[in-house]
Design goal:
With 323 residues, this protein is of the alpha/beta class. The chain has two domains: 155 residues, Rossmann fold, CATH 3.40.50; 152 residues, Rossmann fold (3-Layer(aba) Sandwich), CATH 3.40.50.1370. It is built from ten helices and nine strands. The chain has a five-stranded parallel sheet with strand order 7-6-5-8-9, with helices on one face. A four-stranded parallel sheet has the order 2-1-3-4, sandwiched between helices. The protein is globular and about 55 Å long. The N and C termini lie far apart (45 Å). Bound molecules: N-carbamoyl-L-aspartate (NCD). The site of N-carbamoyl-L-aspartate (NCD) has 10 residues, from helix 2 and helix 6.
């Protein structure tokens, strides 16, 4: 028998117009999103179209390349019956000298309720949120934050582990340039997890301990205690200069492989936000093996984004008087 899911009562407590990062959210707000995403996951077993965003227009403004995030936001909006419009920077009026804010204001004037923004500059979505009436969702801003990726990682961990309280999550790799690392750190520490960051000293920002994490430079030292290992991509496109001698050396010291898996906890969860570089952050057998959560993360991303879009649309509807 299929038990119909009930809308979580906690969604009434959501008051934010924008989702700019997990740094700004408290534990209760993070849990509202996770519980609402779980609700959509139960409902979506049948893949039927829902009408939560009917009459709402969602614009995707992507100023940086993206496959999974853009497709996932698009699909999430469509599953909830929103109208969607896509904006890509190349070939737009930006190349004619228009500013970022003017471009966004132009799109807003066409009657847009929510804007999903990806940009290479940290703070770009926040800047827009100060100039626009629409709700703004950060889909990744430079090296700053990627809140829905952090949330879908945490959703996947919570689904498998129950609670994150007291669990050890190790983030491996390019902590310095990774917005996913920052969103994971904010979210996980607020939910009571112990977070370890592990990578070459050149890829760990100084004073990161202030965020409440432990820094380790030898991956092999933390295998036995990690409940979750989240393998972050080396962000070559954001690095200026060489941060380690060679990719082969990086893979040797920080790559997840069969040997390291054997020395890890029996039920360790292996996550990677993707895109993955097979043979660098992890070997193909680990990426496709039974510990890997990579494709579950992608699936869960859809439900997390449905939850975020609808929560912001609700605030928008409450605060914007009908004209
Ligand atoms: C991440 C990103 O863009 O920050 N990818 C994603 O959103 N799926 C991680 C990455 O590019 O390494």
């Amino acid at each position: 028998m299929v038990v119909p899911a009930e809308t979580p009562a906690s969604i009434k407590n959501w008051t934010r117009r924008h989702l700019l990062g997990l740094e700004k959210l408290n534990r209760e707000e993070i849990e509202i999103i996770l519980d609402y995403a779980a609700y959509f996951k139960t409902l979506q077993k049948t893949r039927s179209k829902l009408d939560h965003l009917s009459g709402v227009v969602v614009a995707n403004l992507f100023f940086e390349p993206s496959t999974r995030t853009k497709t996932s936001f698009n699909l999430a909006a469509k599953r909830l019956s929103a109208d969607t419009v896509d904006f890509t920077a190349s070939g737009s009026s930006l190349s004619k000298g228009e500013t970022f804010i003017d471009t966004a204001l132009t799109i807003e004037s066409m009657g847009v309720d929510l804007m999903v923004v990806r940009h290479s500059s940290p703070g770009a979505p926040e800047l827009l949120s100060r100039h626009l009436k629409t709700g703004v969702l950060n889909a990744g801003d430079g090296t700053h934050e990627h809140p829905t990726q952090g949330l879908l990682d945490i959703f996947t961990m919570r689904e498998k582990l129950g609670s994150l309280d007291g669990k050890t999550v190790t983030l491996v790799g390019d902590i310095k340039h990774s917005r996913v690392a920052r969103s994971n750190i904010w979210g996980l520490t607020k939910l009571g997890a112990k977070v370890i960051v592990c990578g070459p000293p050149t890829l760990i920002p100084p004073e990161i301990e202030r965020l409440g994490v432990k820094v380790v430079h030898r991956f092999d030292d933390v295998l036995a205690e990690s409940d979750v290992i989240n393998l972050l991509r080396v962000q070559f496109e954001r690095q200026r200069g060489a941060f380690f001698p060679s990719i082969a050396e990086y893979a040797h010291l920080f790559g997840m492989n069969k040997k390291r898996l054997q020395r890890s906890k029996e039920n360790v969860l292996i996550l990677a936000p993707g895109p993955i570089n097979r043979g660098v952050e992890l070997t193909p057998d680990v990426a496709d093996g039974k510990h890997s959560q990579i494709l579950h993360q992608v699936t869960n991303g859809l439900f997390v984004r449905m939850a975020c879009l609808h929560l912001l649309a609700q605030t928008q509807a409450r605060e914007t008087p009908v004209q």
